[in-house]
């Protein structure tokens, strides 16, 4: 190992700046031509850059496969690397004399110098690009993840001069290019090197960061602050506090992170005040947590700090003043305003104003939110004001937190008082359970401590006092356990006396005590307000009635149906919030009578419930009317009634109930279908059809469409062709008001009826009507069906007028497809010229790149039936159509459509093969070189068609 003096002897290398005058080894005979060229063209940046890049490549080549030297020298361990550094420094410095503001030169120069001092930089791979306006916390995490590390590097003690020279070069670069953020970032990066000299480790780094923030515009500060904050955290102590205070004054989003650092540095008072300030600002809407924390979550973190550092954060009990005393003293200090003179002078600080002179609302100074103020906090006052008054749903956590604070300070009596006050004021069972569990744990811990103290007595007098206190604590604890169910019940009823579910839970608490259960039900029915109850208010009355019906909780007493009826009778007079609740009362009453086999009574109950008043023009949804006045229009009640009549009533009574439902106009489509099905099951077919007719009159489309479908199907099934004229009238009536999108199935059903039982000509007329009425997207299908039916009935010639009209109506794409069929028809009929004319007509709609099937069909047609002239005419038309479609938009559309078609064909072909064939197809190469060349133009194709017409392209 070389001595320190020997290592220092080879350094410095760049101080002063090397030149051929002082170091002749920097130039060799091969560099003379380059130097002369640079002397002739000193203002050519390209020439300088080419020379530098050539020198860099030579340096890289010369440093390969070199043996490692002393690790303290890092990249400068070998003489070659030291010479290369001097040579590159000389060239860069010479170039910068002429181009001092070239960012390209400075960046390359600094990268080179940084490599020879810091070593080879290795950087972790970033998963993605940084967001433009990312939160500071994410930016810090990204910078920590992407932090550079180095392999080797020059020791800070041995290479002090080189380190200092590197810093000097960066300072010079920033003097010429002060607003280049990349230079600042590269400069700041060197301060993270493990071999950084101690002279640059603290003060110089802080001042450099400050200069960067002062120099760069505010829009670029978000590139400096993440590294500054990371460095400040590593520095620790007052530096961290000073830097973070500066930053959060500009951007409070890092305050939460700063509080965690303060806790780690054991500065809980400052952390607590910052968290309290954030919680208050978030509650006022002035702060939004970057971590998505709510105002209560921030207050909870403040409470955690208070519990952990009770002595350091909170005021001593002796220092806490009564709540009204400070206000009274402030009022005494204020002097009354004099009204005797002409000038009234009001004391007070200046009020800030905006540009228009209007005062800006500002909040008074609060020492509880000032992190620099050493005054401690009044914890109890803050919890009551900022916690319990604002977050009533989190009262349990706040009360237990306050009690824990007093326990940590040794104030057990105040902790007990806090627990009792909390249990008497909370409104949720969750909060109560939280407080009660903490209270019980506190009592157990205190009793355990007193018992441990009695186990090792020191004084008889103190032992007696301890035993008395232990007995008192034991009695209080036992009493607390006995009070628990009642305390829970008080919480539930205090929260909401109209909560039906909680009243049911209260009934369940009494278990098998029938007297208490009945008493609880009676009290509940007297207490609740039906207009303010929660859901299912009727359930309380129903359960009370079932209690009497079943003979108590366990059913040991005889059934008391009279009491159950009285409860339900009373329930029918209650003004519930919804009509369905009253309907449930009547339905449950009817079910109770059925369970006890009082069928006639069940019918009478439903008759009472569905009694129709004189004024039937009542709006069911009118909330201003009582539910009793709107009950007769409850579909739920009538549905139950009709089900009951179908089960135990007669056909006539059931029909009467259905008729009343339709008269009241409360029947829906399902009721219509059920009524008709009921009549059909009882062989009242004509009556069922009348029900359908009434239904289609009540409802409009699309509901009427479903009824017509069922009605017409039932009618045809019943009468077939025996009542053809009536069936026709029904179809015409259905189609009269049917919209376009629903009429297609009706037309098809109508035509099928005529085909099976009527006249073929009428069926064709129906198909013709359908092609004129249905939606445009359905017309092609209708024409296809029409043509098929006409061909089967009247022969192929009868389809010509249909084809001709279809070609006038359908869009271009469908017209082309229909023309192919039309041409095939004409060919079958021997009309070759008509078929050729149809092909020529359809060609204008068919792009040869997307409609290859059409042109292939025409080509086959001309080969089989045409002549050389007709074939040439076909080719001429094809070229003209292709030229017509030869635009960029149509070409892209053709490409997309062609690719889609190829993919579809491939998918269909794959679906028709077995599993192994599909696997082999996937494994096959995408391209296979051909072994046989295509025949040259004019060469005979021995495998071709002998009758094929040979036409050369030059002939056109």
List the helices and strands and how they pair.
Elements: H1 4-9, H2 32-40, H3 45-63, H4 79-98, H5 103-118, E1 120-123, H6 136-145, E2 148-151, H7 160-176, H8 181-189, H9 203-215, H10 225-235, H11 238-250, H12 255-264, H13 268-284, H14 295-308, H15 310-313, H16 325-333, H17 379-388, H18 395-408, H19 412-425, H20 429-455, H21 460-495, H22 500-509, H23 514-527, H24 538-549, H25 561-571, H26 579-595, H27 599-609, H28 627-630, H29 635-648, H30 651-663, H31 669-681, H32 685-698, H33 703-719, H34 724-736, H35 743-757, H36 760-773, H37 776-794, H38 800-809, H39 812-828, H40 832-843, H41 852-865, H42 868-884, H43 888-911, H44 915-923
Antiparallel strand pairs: 1-2
Helix pairs in contact: 3-4, 4-5, 5-7, 6-10, 10-11, 12-13, 13-14, 14-18, 17-18, 18-19, 18-20, 19-20, 20-21, 21-22, 22-23, 24-25, 24-26, 26-27, 26-29, 27-29, 29-30, 31-32, 32-33, 33-34, 34-35, 35-36, 36-37, 38-39, 39-40, 40-41, 41-42
Family: Belongs to the crooked-neck family.
Domain Pre-mRNA-splicing factor SYF1 central HAT repeats: 373-528
Function: Involved in pre-mRNA splicing and cell cycle progression.
Class from secondary-structure proportions:
mainly alpha
Overall average pLDDT: 82
Instruction: Indicate the proportion of strand residues.
Output: under 5%
Can you summarize the main beta sheet?
2 strands, antiparallel
Order of strands in the sheet with most strands? 1-2
- Number of β-strand runs: 2
Given the C-alpha coordinates, what overall shape results? Answer: flat
Runs in which pLDDT lies below 50 for 5 or more consecutive residues are 324-348, 922-956
How much helical structure, as a percent, in the residues? 55-70%
Number of helices: 44
C-alpha Rg, in Å?
Answer: 48 Å
Separation, N- and C-terminal Cα atoms: 90 Å
